[in-house]
Task: structure prediction
Amino acid sequence: MNDISNVQLLVLLSRLLQNNALFGPIPANMGKLQKLQTLDLSNNKFSGGIPSSLGSLNNLNYLDLSYNYLSGSLPKLSSRIFKFIGNPLICGPNSQINCSDVSPEPLPFPSDALRGKLI
Result:
């Protein structure tokens, strides 16, 4: 199985799918995993844009989309740690985004929440 288009688990807390040769677009229905706290899709072959539906994952603390073939703009995400380096169509030499010095704008969190650096 090399795609994850039938993700239907709504109570999933962590999804670690790095280094699995998964391909195709990241399914928009990943945004339905409302309890998800960690999502690592790094080092695969995902292509296309980053689904804006991931922005609805309010419990997401860590998102790693590094080293895929993603393109387009970076959506606003509530993830405290968001990695996207190694996507040549986002971070490449002809891109308007320099991944070494640009991170998505963080959303405000309550003062008692954990804080982290956006990478």
Summary: The helical segments are 88-91. Strands lie at 14-16, 23-24, 38-40, 45-48, 62-64, 69-70, 81-83. The domain at 1-119 is CATH 3.80.10.10 (Leucine-rich repeat, LRR (right-handed beta-alpha superhelix)).
